[in-house]
């Protein structure tokens, strides 16, 4: 099993990277919102890797930090959540926000993820709530939801708003979150 990889990026697409190490190019799928952060090919990169083996395929999923890898592995152990679904879930919010939603059994937040229905969201909560333990109060999660709704009411899509909010500090109040997210969205 491949646990990590360090090498030169020889190809970057909107869904995966090919990283060359010791003359071998590895196709590694990443969380979609991480790919734009990777600027160019021919740069050195180091990734934590989950090797997913099935009867007919062997896929590699890469993560910039170990915490993302651990959360990804917890998600794929939930019945009904595969690696592609786990990548989508990781792409919608920070790990801390997702953990808060799970620990507070906020099924509504999880069902706003494309492809996650009520039953799947309930499974995620039931399977992972005890594993992730308690997190900060629900105020910051509610602030995240309120900021998301405010940005959507200003005409931004849910995906645009989520991407901007992921880049904003989770420790700030709702007004500051919205202002910082608007700066990010305005800079596009």
Automatic annotation (TrEMBL):
Single Gene Ontology BP annotation: DNA repair
Region (Domain III), start-end ranges: 146-188
Assigned protein family: Belongs to the RuvA family.
Origin: domain of life: Bacteria
Functional summary from the UniProt entry: The RuvA-RuvB-RuvC complex processes Holliday junction (HJ) DNA during genetic recombination and DNA repair, while the RuvA-RuvB complex plays an important role in the rescue of blocked DNA replication forks via replication fork reversal (RFR). RuvA specifically binds to HJ cruciform DNA, conferring on it an open structure. The RuvB hexamer acts as an ATP-dependent pump, pulling dsDNA into and through the RuvAB complex. HJ branch migration allows RuvC to scan DNA until it finds its consensus sequence, where it cleaves and resolves the cruciform DNA.
Complexes and interactors: Homotetramer. Forms an RuvA(8)-RuvB(12)-Holliday junction (HJ) complex. HJ DNA is sandwiched between 2 RuvA tetramers; dsDNA enters through RuvA and exits via RuvB. An RuvB hexamer assembles on each DNA strand where it exits the tetramer. Each RuvB hexamer is contacted by two RuvA subunits (via domain III) on 2 adjacent RuvB subunits; this complex drives branch migration. In the full resolvosome a probable DNA-RuvA(4)-RuvB(12)-RuvC(2) complex forms which resolves the HJ.
Domain Helix-hairpin-helix DNA-binding motif class: start-end pairs: 73-92, 108-127
Hydrolase keyword on record: yes
UniProt keyword Hydrolase, yes or no: yes
Protein species of origin: Candidatus Nomurabacteria bacterium RIFCSPHIGHO2_12_FULL_37_29
A single MF term (Gene Ontology): ATP binding
Taxonomy of the source species: Bacteria, Candidatus Nomuraibacteriota
Gene3D superfamilies named in the record: 5' to 3' exonuclease, C-terminal subdomain, DNA helicase RuvA subunit, C-terminal domain, Nucleic acid-binding proteins
The encoding gene: ruvA
Region (Domain I): 1-64
GO cellular component: cytoplasm; Holliday junction helicase complex; Holliday junction resolvase complex
CDD domains on file: UBA_RuvA_C
HAMAP family: DNA_HJ_migration_RuvA
Location(s), subcellular: Cytoplasm
Protein's UniProt name: Holliday junction branch migration complex subunit RuvA
Note on domains (UniProt): Has three domains with a flexible linker between the domains II and III and assumes an 'L' shape. Domain III is highly mobile and contacts RuvB.
Record's keyword terms, sorted: ATP-binding, Cytoplasm, DNA damage, DNA recombination, DNA repair, DNA-binding, Helicase, Hydrolase, Nucleotide-binding
